[in-house]
Amino acid sequence: MELHKGEHLVRQGDSADHVYYVLRGRFEVLLDGRHLVAEIGAGEPVGEIAFFGGLSRTADVVASRDSEVLELSRENFDRLAAAQPDFIQSILRTLGRRLAATTAAASALAPRIADAVGLCAAGQSAVPESLVADLVQALRDSGSRVCVLRARDLPGDVAADDERLMSQWLGGQEQRGSTLLLVSGDGNPAWDRAALRHCDHLLLCGRLDEANAGPVALGELERYAAPLFRPRQTSLLLWREQSGTAIAHTRHWLQGRALHLHHHVALDRPGDFGRVARLLTGRALGAVLGGGGALGAGHIGTLRALGEAGVELDIIGGTSIGSVVAHAYAAGDDAHAMLADYEHFFIKRKALGRFTLPWYSLLDHRHLDACMQDQLGDSRLEDLPLNFFAVGANLSTNELEVVRHGLSRHALRISTAIPVALPPWINAQGQVLVDGGVMNNVPISVMRAIKSGPNMVSMLSPGNEWQVKSAYERVPSRLALAWQLLRRQRRDDDFPRLGEVAARSMQITSGRMLRGTGLGSDLLLKPPAVPGMGLLNFKLGRAQEQAGYEYTRRFLDKAGGLEGIQAWQRGEVMPEFED
């Protein structure tokens, strides 16, 4: 039974009189016709739960590319199961894995690795041959077997407009075990359309500077391809001739295009293609940096040690101070520049050191905003060389707010809006946003929803159990506090202050969220706090950075350095590390 891309195999609510087995292609499982809950590929059954349980179909199953299935009625299934016991065992193993995954799932579905990628020009510029060659080489260097197919590779007895023969031929190429890269745009429209219908993933390629004049209209083939793919199946590669050319106006490319990720590459820098290849094949290394106030200098030390060891991060994000450090890394700053900016921002400028009347917040947000404006200007997230995300908490929807586009200073202001200490951010829809640490201080679930593959998690902790020498009874009354303020007296006890309580409260979510989400095969780094370090003690930032650096060096030594990290990225087990 053959299905074209976009056709329904089963519909939610229908009776389950048949079970299916995917021979080639791929299918999406959609709850209520909209919410993607699973993807099913060749060699896997479809509809087995409802079939065995005598239930109605629980979701729609739609072909995400031209596909072929084996359709079995109950009578035919019983006959086949009796003749081929291994067949029923295969289905039962798949059923068991799916049930186990459903039970353990605590986060969004990670993107499935594409078996067939369609390369399609975006905008008005043709895709350079050198780009295709560099991408293919990068895919092979990443460990993938790649089969590049163009219209000229079609056998003489297969016409591109013969859907049945074309699908069979492409399916045969895929069964050889290679990732297919189907290149369009060679002047054969029938091939272009048939090839794109066979793909799991659409990789659009556009020339960055086309956006200099404003939004870029969809090209002719791009208009055909766009409706065939869901956003999570679509990415945009924006190329420029030289790495020295500044990245700008990316937002004009993103307007009118529903995308999962976009990538920036320079044709004179092959390493950029390596990053794209790893993201396409599930080998990209992501980093998630947790919140923790002044302790964030430890993240800088961790990144310094990783950089010295030759470890490349392909995508990065974080919460609160973690988002600030992650943004600097995504912008291309080295650790020395990050630490210099940290000290300038928090110590010299005292961005969090100017108080105000405590009606909306304790701190003067206008001073913080001015410092951010001076440091970040009008830079935008989509123009960063690496994909980046910041996390906030949306108090209007009670949901995590993942920020991946827009002005950098706005994204970081959202992610660092510590309740009480700073006023919340109000977005264009009138929603109230605060520091992401309120909901998820270590947002590994966000990274997993964006990409497949390995991740490093850097989690900050103030250290030992928080104990103070003061007592509740010593909290001054309104009059006593007013008298102290008038006389400018400083209290000599260590009763917790508002800002510190707010910051500490968000640290609680770190361990709890990791336990709930599960670390899996991802790596957890926990840079230690230096003696006397507090969440707001930015003056110890340089010592904290050094502590993070030395800790990560010890971790890398135990892991076997760069070779050990690369082995882990390939799926080998990393030895446990206790510092």
Automatic annotation (TrEMBL):
GO terms for cellular component: cytoplasm; membrane. The keyword Transferase does not apply. A motif (GXGXXG) lies at residues 291-296. GO terms for molecular function: phosphatidylcholine lysophospholipase activity. A motif (GXSXG) lies at residues 318-322. Residues 287-448 form the PNPLA domain. Residues 1-98 form the Cyclic nucleotide-binding domain. Keywords: Hydrolase, Lipid degradation, Lipid metabolism, Membrane, Transmembrane, Transmembrane helix. Gene3D superfamilies: Cytosolic phospholipase A2 catalytic domain, Jelly Rolls. It is found in: Cytoplasm; Membrane. GO terms for biological process: lipid catabolic process. A motif (DGA/G) lies at residues 435-437. The keyword Transmembrane applies. Pfam families: cNMP_binding, NTE_Ploop, Patatin. Belongs to the NTE family. This is Cyclic nucleotide-binding protein. It comes from Stenotrophomonas pictorum JCM 9942.
